[in-house]
Amino acid sequence: MTAVLECTGITKRFGQLAAVDDVTLTIDRGARHALIGPNGAGKSTLFNLLAGTLRPTSGRIVLDGRDVTGKSDAWRSRAGLAKTFQHSSLFQSLSVADNVAIAAQRVSGDGLRLRRSARSCPDVDRCVDRCLQQTGLSERSGSRVSDLSHGERRQLEVAVALATEPTLLLLDEPTAGMSAAESDRFAHLVESLPKEVTVLLIEHDLDVVFRLASRISVLHLGRLLADGPPADIRADEQVQAAYLGTGATEELFLPAVGT
Amino acid sequence: MSSELVVRGLRSGYAGSAVLDGVDLTVHGGEVVGLLGRNGVGKSTLMSTLVGWVRPSGGSITLDGKELAGAATHTIARAGVAIVPQGRRVFAPLTVENNLKIATPRGGSTTWSLERVYELMPRLAERRRNRGDQLSGGEQQMLAIARALLLEPRVLLLDEPSDGLAPAVVEQVVGVISSLRAEGLSVLLVEQDLHAAFKLSDRILVMQKGRIVHDSTTQEFRSDGERGRRLLGVG
Amino acid sequence: MTRPMTTPSSRGSDMAVDEVVAAGRPSSRGVFLTRHLPIGAAIVLALFAVPFFAPADLANALTRILALALLAVSLDLLVGVSGLPSLGHAAPFGVGAYAAGITAKEVTPFAPVPLLAAVVAGAVLSVLVGLVVVRTKGTYLLMLTLAVAELVHVLAGRWTAVTGGTNGLVGIPAMTLVPGGEPVRLAGIRYWYVLAVALLFFVLLVVVSRSAFGRSLRGIRDNEQRMSSLGYSTFRVKFTVFVIAGAVAGAAGSLYVVQSRFVSPTDLGFEVSALALLAVVIGGRGSLWGAVLGTALVFYLRDEIGPLLGGRGGLLMGAVFIAAVYLLPRGFAGIRVPRRFHRRQEAS
């Protein structure tokens, strides 16, 4: 299986601090890859490095065989990388459909067309319908963003990202702030995404992670601690230790006295 | 005379999100309650809501029967809820002494005076002329706690006091908090460092996805390693 | 997909529900036109009819207002639609006016030629300024455009050989509508010409605003960072609209000269930029036609009401501006008759 994304020796320093320290990671085509780790692990920094909003101090990032290390986020988007934002980043004054249309029209080239009316771009409209359907928002297409619930806004984030026809979709803590029911719906949405789109998500909600992920990478203190299928990660003692604190788990949990 | 903090059905979030999805908890008088949970479950949002930085969208917060949900931050502070925020947030350009003087209520303090605070944390007394940004992480943490104490709190909220501190320093901070516990102060402690949490807490609460999913004595919680891993570790 | 039980932010009025319902209906160009076209057509017809019923003074005043209204509309494309606040839009306007005046004097007063010269001048200035200024945002953009306009203002006063300096450009001949033909002396004809050209450019700007490109502009206004992460070259989009706005401002300058036959550095001054921005804000940002309304209102306040207040017209305008910002965040164009009002009418 060819890799969609390969990063080699990625390091990001802020002064003396290495927020991401020599991380080498491969995202396989079609994978549902999760990036987890306790707080301060460097997940957000790594996410931003992959997305192109931060440049690495050293290392290489290769997307679909192309070196994108020095390229901007706009460039990477045109190369097939789409991302959602942790705090919903939508076009507030536009309708749901227009939000998706803006993304779709960049791909179709209509975004810079002065004479093409916004209402008569059939390619764009088709793409919008498709993306809204995939994310379960078809009935909300005329609504304003401010009228959507939090969960729906997160769904719209994904619809907008999908409209750019990405090869790799990066999701930044998509279920943050979602109730259990909303998280469940969102997980279902990700499960039903087309197989051609590879998904990499940062998540804190481990229920969602273990439900969706075909592969999990664990970051801790900026370094890649473990990388493998969910079962392996579950069984990994080092990962447990990272989550529970530096002490050995035996010391923390003692058998009940008198049982 | 120790105070009781009761939270029922608390809902809160940012821009419509449901970060807190119906939180129920009680801190009985004089007890230290440890609140645990993985990142992103809403622990910091809970602290922010209790102290009034975030307005709840539903539910109630009562301190000794007085309703505080939705009240302004300064009202909540005057009612006796003091927070030691994550990351300390001391006033960097002010000296230790001035950081504390700012916190002293106008009428002067009865239980917690400047002298008493210095007595509890002699290291701070040594550094009273130093500016906030000249202190080490541990000293800043002491300062943040001292500042909260000067408000004469009825309940003290501690948000990850061990955050960013070396293990030896964490020990010192734990020592200070233990002495407070001996004074009969009601404490809600959010912690990632499980050793510190277990050492200090009478009871353990675990939060998941905006709700409290476990509530028992510390000993009870520690008796089941499997459950502990499931709630706090990976799977 | 059913909506979860989260309550929307408390608005709880009938109006809010109506707005939600209206929003649920997919907006389409068809709906907009069927609702607004009759009113628009009526207004345009009324405007064309003015010379038949009103004295020359009114035609002249309206001519001036139309020129400045076009300036305001072009500014609205920048400010309201694209979110690029400019306090220097008098610069392309004034440069266009000078270009038109000089062309009419030195080349030919045959109207389309000075008009073209003005459009080109406005565009060229905007290209040069835009390359520098468009990279900035918000307050910085506001200050930079103001600074540039002031520079151009000073230049206009100093470059006496070309512009006539502080005395202004005099001796601009009356326009002709036929090459080498009779100069137009009737206020009414002049008015019709200005009205027709202003209308033409207005329609052009509406087409741009409603195009796919226009949607990109709104995207940049709402969330530029998002646009960039979707793969747009936001600089390119902003630069393009900046030049378009400048070109149309230049055209507005030529229309102004057609009536005034005089250009001075004051026409490039801060007061013109400020008035244009005022008109945009009071009229309603982003609607384009709101800027026309805003310009009419500004003139009415300044020239009709102002003298009644003993020359405190400026004070009044300031007060109206503040009121507009607080009470009508979407300007006069944003006022919507609530559905509730209609229902009551039907019931009674």
Keywords:
heterotrimer; A: 259 residues; alpha/beta; Rossmann fold; six-stranded mixed beta sheet; four-stranded antiparallel beta sheet; 10 helices; 10 strands; C: 348 residues; mainly alpha; 73% helix; globular; disordered N terminus; disordered C terminus
Blueprint of the fold:
The complex is a heterotrimer of chains A (259), B (235) and C (348).
Chain A lengths: L2 E12 L2 E12 L3 E5 L6 H9 L6 E6 L2 E2 L5 H6 L2 E3 L12 H13 L13 H13 L15 H13 L5 E5 L7 H12 L6 E5 L3 H7 L2 E6 L2 E6 L1 H6 L1 H8 L4 H4 L7
Parallel strand pairs in A: 3-8, 3-9, 6-7, 7-8
Antiparallel strand pairs in A: 1-2, 1-4, 4-5, 9-10
Chain B lengths: L4 E8 L7 E8 L4 E5 L6 H9 L6 E6 L2 E2 L5 H7 L1 E4 L11 H8 L10 H7 L1 H5 L10 H13 L5 E5 L7 H16 L3 E5 L3 H7 L2 E6 L2 E7 H5 L2 H8 L3
Helix pairs in contact in B: 3-6, 6-7
Chain C lengths: L13 H11 L4 H25 L2 H26 L8 H17 L5 H22 L4 H21 L1 H4 L23 H24 L1 H18 L4 H27 L9 H14 L5 H20 L4 H15 L11 H9 L1
Helix pairs in contact in C: 2-8, 3-8, 3-10, 3-11, 3-12, 4-5, 4-10, 5-10, 8-9, 8-10, 9-10, 11-12, 12-13
Give the biggest sheet of chain C: none
Average residue pLDDT of chain A: 90
Residue share in helix of chain C:
over 70%
Strand content of chain C: under 5%
List the secondary-structure elements of chain C in sequence, H or E.
HHHHHHHHHHHHHH
Helix vs. strand class of chain A:
alpha/beta
The largest inter-chain interface, given as chain pair and residues per side, is: A-C, 57 and 40 residues
**Secondary structure tally: strands of chain A:** 10
